[in-house]
Every structure is written in structure tokens, then in C-alpha cells.
Amino acid sequence: MKKKLKKFLRGGAAALAALMLAHAALAKEAAPLAEDPAVEQRMVKITEELRCLVCQNESLAGSQADLAKDLREEVRGLIKAGKSDDEVREFLVSRYGDFVLYRPQVKPVTYLLWGGPFLLLIAGIVALVRYLRRRNRQLTETPLSEEERQRAEALLKDNRP
Q1: CA 106 to CA 98: how far, in whole Å?
Q2: Which of 83, 85, 108, 149 might form a disulfide with 144, Cβ 3.0–4.6 angstroms?
Q3: Residue 20: helix, strand or coil by DSSP?
């Protein structure tokens, strides 16, 4: 009995060690520290306003996609070259279009994008009001005719004990 228990514990310890080693293999390499914290801070500020073109629902600052890493390096290089924040954004928009911006500029091409949610909200409210008015008209009580009232009374009298 003791031999079986020892064998079981050894196997369990081996399995636990294998799991721990496998978990350690999943660890990622630490991100390199910034050479210049001011450049890094500007890079993070700018990339938080830009969309990852691979993930599309993440900012460039938070994405781990290879393209996002490359674009962060590109932004870092532009900042080191002395470009302003607006110049960096304009450079990326010229390469990737307005889609790269989380907050696209208001211009004729994006009017529907900016106004669309409000138009849909107004259309929804109008549709709801029309539906409720139509429903209220249908639910208004119409008085029973004399014949219908007599028939209802007769049916009710038949069902009483």
C-alpha cells in the first residue's frame, strides 16, 4: 500500500513540475526600457489614439500584433526625428487612411459616421412614438352594441352555478 502511495506521489510531483515548466515557457520577453522617457510617453499618448490595423478593436499602444509593434517603432522614430504629434498622425493617416484614427476628423466624408448614431436614435424614437399612438388607437374601447351586450349577459348567466 505504501509503495503505491509513494509511486502516486512521485508521479504527481513529476506532473506538477512539468506543468510549472510548461507555464514558464509561455512567459514573454520583457519589453525594453525606453532610452528617453519623454519620447516613450509621447509615443504612448499618440498610439493610444490610433487603431491597431490587425486587431481593429485595440489601440496601437495596447496591441501585441507584430504590425502594431512595427508601427510603435515607426512612431518612436518619427518623434525622435523631431516630428510633432499632428505630423505623426498625418503620416499614419496618409499611409493607412482615416481608419487608423479612433476619433476620425469631422469632414464631409465622415458626416454620416458622426451623425449616423444620432439619426438612428431619432428614427427609433419617431418609430416608437408612431407605434405607441397606433396601438393606443387600436386599444380604445368601443361600446358593445345592444345585441352583443345581451349575448354576453346570456353567456355569463349560463356559466353561473
Answers
A1: 11
A2: 149
A3: helix
Contact of 76 with 92, CB cutoff 8 Å: no
Report the C-alpha gap between 59 and 47 in whole angstroms.
7
Neighbours of 114 (CB within 10 A): 13
112 and 87 in a common domain: no
In a domain, 126, yes or no: yes
pTM equals 0.52
What SS3 state is found at 35?
coil
Could you give the count of Cα atoms lying within 13 Å of 107 in the half-sphere of its Cβ?
A: 5
Q: Which residues pair with 50 in a beta bridge?
A: 101
What CATH number corresponds to the domain at position 101?
1.10.8.640
C-alpha cell at 68: 502594431
DSSP string of 55-66?
Answer: TSSSBTTT--SH
